[in-house]
Design goal:
Structural class: alpha+beta
Shape: elongated
InterPro entries: CdaR-like_regulators (IPR051448), PucR_C-HTH_dom (IPR025736), PucR_C-HTH_sf (IPR042070), RsbRD_N_dom (IPR025751)
CATH class of the largest domain: Mainly Alpha
Largest sheet: 5 strands, mixed
Number of helices: 16
Number of strands: 5
Helix content: 55-70%
Oligomer: single chain
Distance between the termini: 79 Å
Strand content: 5-15%
Organism: Nocardia ninae NBRC 108245
Protein name: PucR family transcriptional regulator
Pfam families: HTH_30, RsbRD_N
Amino acid sequence: MLFAQMSARSAELTALAIKRLRAEIPAYAQLDPETLAPATRRTIDQLMRVLAEGRDLTADELAVFTAHGETRGRQGIPVTEMFRGWRLAVRIAIDQVVATGRRLGIGDSQLLGLTNELLALTDTAILAVARGHIDADFERTRHDQQRRADLVRGILFGTLGPAEIRVQVERYGLDSDREYRAIRARPHPELPADQVARQLEHTPSGDRPHGLLALVDGDIAGVVDHMPAREIETAVGIGPPARLDRMEPSFRSATRAMATAEAFERTGVYELADLGLLPAVLADTEVGDELVRRYLTPLGRNDSAAALLDTVAHYLGNGMRVDNTAKEMGLHTNTVRYRLRRFQDLTGIDLTDPDRALEAWWALQRRRLSRER
C-alpha cells in the first residue's frame, strides 16, 4: 500500500529529485530540468511498481535502468556524478518512505523492513544503470575518436576546406591562422599507439601543446605546434610548418621521413633533410638495384666479400678516415687499407673520386635495405 501510494506520486517525486540533483550536483545543474525528467520519471515509476508488487526486477525492467545509465552518459554526466545523484535520489526515496509510512501509521520495525527492500532493489538497479553508462561512454568515446580521426585525415590529406577546418578545430583548441607541423609515427608491440601519442604530445616544459593526433592507417598522425623530443623508440617523421588548410605537402614529407627512418631501422624524430640521401635510396629502387648488380653482386656472398663490404661501409660512414674506421671496427689500420684496396681492385671503384664513392655508398645502402627486408 505504501509503495502504491508513492507510485501515484511519481510526478511529485520526480520534480523533488530533480530539484535536489540540480541544487547539489554541478553536472546536473548544467542540464535543463526537462532534459532530466523523462529518465528520472521512468526510474521512479519502475522502482515503486516493483516494490508495490513485492517481487524482483525482470530483464525488461532492468533494461529500463540500463537505458537510464545510457541517457546520463550521453548527456555527459560523469559516472561519479551519476552515482552521487543516485545516492541522493535513494536518500530522498527513503525519506519519503518514512514520511508516508508514518502518515499511514506504519510501525518503525515495518518501516525498517520496507526501507531495506528499497535499498536491496536499488542496489540491483544501480548495476544496470552502471552498465548503461559504461556502454554510452564507450560509444561516445568511439564516436569522438572517429570524429577526431576524420578531422585529422581531412587536414592531412587536404580534403577539408579552410572554412570547415576553422569550425572543426576550435573545439580542440587549435588556431586555424597558425602554422603547425604534420607528424607521423609508427607504433609497434613494444611501443603501442597510446604511448606513442603521449610521447609526441610531451614537451620539456611540461605544458600540454596545441596539437591534434589520431590513429590514421595504423599510425599515429596529426599536427603539432612543437618539435617533439628526439628520444623516442620508434620511427617518427615530421614535416615543415604550414597552415592547417595547406598541410598535405607537410604530411607527405613527414610520411616519407618516417618510412625512410623505419626502413633503415632508425628511431627518433626526423625531418626529411635529416636523412640525407636515404629517402632517395628507398624511393629509387632501380638505381640502387643497378648499382648493387654492377658493383656488389660480382663479389659474391662469402665471408671475405662480407668483410670487404663491411669495411667500406664503416669507412664511408667515418668520413673516409682510415684511423677512425680501424678504431670503430677494432682492426689494424693496415688491415683496413688492405680491404679498401681489395674492394677497389675487384669493383673498379676509386673511392677517392666523390662520384664513385657516392655510388659505392648508394649500393651499400641499397644492399642493407634489401637484407633488412
